[in-house]
UniProtKB/TrEMBL annotation:
This is Malto-oligosyltrehalose synthase. GO terms for biological process: alpha-glucan catabolic process; trehalose biosynthetic process. Gene3D superfamilies: Glycosidases (3.20.20.80), Maltooligosyl trehalose synthase, domain 2 (3.30.1590.10), Maltooligosyl trehalose synthase, domain 3 (1.10.150.200), Maltooligosyl trehalose synthase, domain 4 (1.10.10.470). It comes from Rhizobium deserti. Residues 6-439 form the Glycosyl hydrolase family 13 catalytic domain. Transmembrane segments: none annotated.
Length: 846
């Protein structure tokens, strides 16, 4: 298997086509990338901005160039010696009439050849939750009629631009007669004869008859665990792999599958031993991917979380949380807030899925024929508590029960629930433990397996929507830690913890991707790096927010349900704005402020709705939203010059320290265990907000211009940091080194290095070493005070009296700085002040 030395993620659609991407290949080659990493390329719904709503898994989307365009990109990659990794989506497809398979299921119901391709409960009619109101209300309003489908000419139930095909058995031989139906009762009768039931989108959380992706009704779960379904959905994927045009696969949301291990084993068998395979999976605290999965690792969200151990001041983050609690008058109990968010999901957004599990549990109990069955209320309470208490995405039970690691996880969860303040009935809890372990025999065994799989397919979405898409938009003390893959509960951050995590990473998944920005992260890597700095100056930040709240007090509105924005949201607005503030924005720049305002306002609306407190996606509180958006617009109004000057001035030291953090995290990503993934444009500065902002196309022309052929790195002048040019050149230098020394970075030992002296706490140092080569990495951390001009620290002596201690195997070697070419012979200690003379970092190669 050829393991990438690095990957570069490109988002297709939104203007990005195969031909445009092919034009970027020479730039990627020059940057030092080994593998082009493509977002989904298969045909998706019209206007799709991401490609995860696949409508044809065996066609390359014509809107981005089709098969011909793909072949041109493939040729360009081969010409320059780059590999190709595809993002594939086995868990779901679009529940759209544009999807021929789904349309066939809608038309023919259980008799469709694709009826079992989708995860549908055929004990009832297929629910289609795409009406604006109930079927009866929509029918009464005259919005549903019988018309000929303009695409097929066949009779259909027409709802605005959608034409739902009628089952041929309900009209064959009398098409003309059916097309004349216009009476509401007759339309309702015809609707009742169909294999599907049209209903309001609002009823989906409770009444859906098919498994969906998270809570998106437009994405239907696929039963890829069935051999014929796997074959049908992977035909083109495997053709591209076997032809040598695709070198690797990234499996989207692997935890959504019924049996991830079996799926990955089949994929490995079909794709062959040389295909590089990674999976999108969120790892919980202390969790590792199962050792028996035949893959190279995850896509790297856990790496983002690990980086916070290097760049967050653990004491300061607690003071920041305290300041947030004092300002809002509501000190956060994160465990309680997490429980609230999970209960909201279980009782509302996923009520239908929970109800399905409850019915199954009752059926199994009845089938077992116990003398004293448990009351439904007790079973429901126990089920609810188990779902809410799950600390990881899921376990991996099959028809054979739970594997040992999953069994241990379940036992810990059950014990936590049993000892907790909301402990349900002990017998009910023991019943679910038995069901999930597979300790059920006889006629109930099959239903027990179904229950186990359904339960496991629910805990992941419930966790994701509770944490990433609810809690992280409610608790704003430290936005940098509200990231995909991060733990929701506060923890200690330490350099020692990071070193331990990297040693484990080298042991468990050395070939996994290491990301810092993705299309799903809550903010760009450089915005996050800047916001980490708040933990170093929590009191200064809190004082600034208090001042800004007072300056903008007249923009707040008092609504019937409270102030808008409330203090929590004000804190969030200032912190989010600090993260996204462009390094090159000079006041007064009216055009720049307007461009930033439009991006910021879109983020504010999403953040408010995701919080699900005073507004949400299903029932927007327009008065509240507009009041907060008006406040946000006022922040960036050129007329609000006093605030803008104060804000930009106060932000400067955070920006400077954030740029240092940015470079440190990039260097660590490119030298620590794992395969570094560069998300499009993030080789420059990535100050993006949550999607869709982070999916905007970067300025590739500027990036290509910045990356010159010069061997010497860009200078350490501040302008080079602020433009992102220094970051880009450091990345390019290290990417080329990775290509030169692939074994060192893939298999070389990870050695934490001790730092002693005056600024020991401001340095992170480690080495990668094998029998042939060694690289010593020294980067700054927690530098807010070290860079503070008010402290009158002589820059030339900023790092004086600080040394990196070399263990015996690294001592007494001559090292060369790969950035400057300077050679040193440090014996057993490296003086930081000396190696930071040209750049505030050192990359020393033997």
């Amino acid at each position: 298997m050829k393991i990438p030395t690095s990957t570069y993620r490109i988002q297709f659609r939104n203007g990005m086509t195969f031909d445009r991407a092919a034009g970027l290949v020479p730039y990627m080659k020059r940057l030092g990338i080994s593998h082009f990493y493509a977002s989904p390329i298969f045909t998706a719904t019209a206007g799709s901005t991401h490609g995860y709503d696949v409508t044809d898994a065996n066609e390359i989307d014509p809107t981005i160039g089709g098969r011909e365009g793909f072949e041109r990109l493939s040729s360009a990659l081969k010409e320059h010696g780059l590999g190709l990794i595809l993002d594939i989506v086995p868990n779901h497809m679009a529940a759209s009439l544009e999807n021929a398979w789904w349309r066939d299921v809608v038309e023919n119901g259980k008799e469709s050849r694709y009826a079992r391709h989708f995860d549908i409960d055929w004990n009832r009619r297929l629910t289609l939750p795409f009406l604006g109101d109930s079927f009866e209300t929509v029918l009464e309003a005259g919005d549903i009629s019988v018309k000929a489908d303009p695409r097929t000419g066949k009779p259909a139930l027409a709802y605005f631009e959608s034409f739902y095909p009628l089952n041929p058995q309900t009209y064959t031989g009398r098409e003309a007669e059916v097309l004349k139906i216009s009476g509401k009762n007759d339309i309702a009768s015809l609707h009742d004869q169909q294999s599907y039931r049209l209903m309001s989108w609002r009823d989906a959380p409770r009444e859906l008859s098919y498994r969906r992706f998270f809570e998106i009704t437009g994405l239907a779960g696929v039963r890829v665990e069935d051999g014929p379904v796997f074959d049908d959905t992977h035909r083109l994927i495997l053709e591209l792999v076997r032809s040598g045009k695709v070198d690797g696969l990234r499996v989207d949301h692997v935890d959504g599958l019924a049996d991830p291990k079996s799926y990955l084993e089949r994929l490995r068998q079909e794709a062959g031993p040389d295909c590089y395979i990674t999976v999108e999976k969120i790892l919980g605290e202390g969790e590792q991917i199962p050792a028996d999965w035949p893959i190279s690792g995850t896509t790297g969200y856990e790496f983002i979380s690990a980086l916070s151990d290097v760049l967050v001041d653990s004491d300061g983050i607690e003071r920041l949380r305290s300041a947030y609690g004092e300002m809002t008058g509501n000190p956060a109990d994160m465990a309680a807030e997490l429980r609230k968010a999970k209960l909201l999901m279980a009782d509302n957004n996923f009520a239908g899925e929970v109800s399905t599990l409850l019915k199954l549990a009752l059926q199994i109990q009845e089938a077992e024929g116990k003398a004293a069955p448990l009351a439904e209320e007790k079973i429901k309470a126990a089920l609810r508590e188990l779902l809410v208490a799950f600390p990881v995405y899921r376990t991996y039970g099959t028809a054979n029960g739970l594997p040992p690691e999953s069994r241990q996880t379940l036992e810990k969860v059950v014990d936590t629930v049993r000892r907790g303040p909301n402990a349900p009935d002990e017998q009910a809890l023991a019943y679910f433990e038995r069901l999930l372990k597979g300790d059920v025999a006889g006629a109930a065994a099959a239903d027990s397996t179904t229950f186990r799989i359904r339960f496991q397919q629910l805990t992941g979405p419930l966790m994701a929507k509770s944490v990433e898409d609810t809690l992280f938009f409610r608790q704003h003390a430290a936005l940098a830690l509200n990231e995909v893959g991060s733990e929701p509960l506060p923890r200690v951050h330490s350099l020692e913890r990071f070193h331990a995590e990297m040693q484990t990473r080298l042991e468990r998944q050395p070939d996994a991707l290491s990301g810092t920005s993705t299309h799903d992260t809550k903010r760009g890597e450089d915005a996050r790096a800047r916001l980490y700095v708040l933990s170093e100056a929590p009191d200064l930040w809190a004082e600034s927010v208090s001042r800004w709240r007072e300056m903008n007090g007249s923009a707040r509105q008092d609504l019937a349900d409270g102030p808008a924005p409330e203090p929590e949201v004000e804190w969030m607005l200032y912190q989010a704005l600090a993260g996204v503030w462009p390094t090159d924005l000079s006041l007064p720049d009216t055009a720049g402020l307007k461009a930033l305002e439009e991006r910021f306002v879109a983020y504010v609306e999403k953040a408010l709705r995701e919080a699900k407190l005073r507004t949400n996606w299903n029932g927007p509180n327009e008065a509240y939203e507009q009041a907060v958006i008006s406040y946000a617009r006022n922040l960036l109004s050129p007329q609000n010059s006093d605030f803008l000057e104060d804000f930009s001035h106060a932000l400067r030291p955070f920006v400077r320290s954030g740029l240092v953090n940015s470079l440190s995290q990039s260097i660590i990503k490119l030298t620590a265990p794992g395969v570094p993934d560069i998300y499009q444009g993030s080789e420059g500065l990535d100050l993006s907000l949550v999607d869709p902002d982070n999916r905007r196309e970067p300025d590739f022309a500027m990036l290509q211009q910045q990356l010159t052929e010069k061997e010497k790195l860009a200078s350490a002048e501040e302008e080079e940091w602020q433009s992102g040019r220094l970051k880009q050149h450091v990345i390019a230098t290290l990417l080329r080194l990775r290509q030169e020394l692939p074994s060192l970075f893939r298999k070389g030992e990870y050695i934490p290095l001790e730092v002693v002296g005056k600024r020991a706490g401001n340095i992170a140092a480690f080495a990668r070493a094998d029998a042939e080569d060694a690289l010593v990495v020294i980067v700054p951390r927690l530098v807010f005070n070290a860079l503070n001009p008010a402290l009158d620290v002589d820059p030339e002596n900023r790092w004086a009296e600080t040394e990196v201690v070399l263990p015996a195997r690294l001592a007494d070697h001559r090292y060369s700085d790969i950035c400057t070419g300077t050679t040193i012979d440090p014996k057993d200690r490296i003086a930081v002040n000396w190696v930071f003379a040209d750049h505030p970092f050192a990359l020393l190669r033997t």
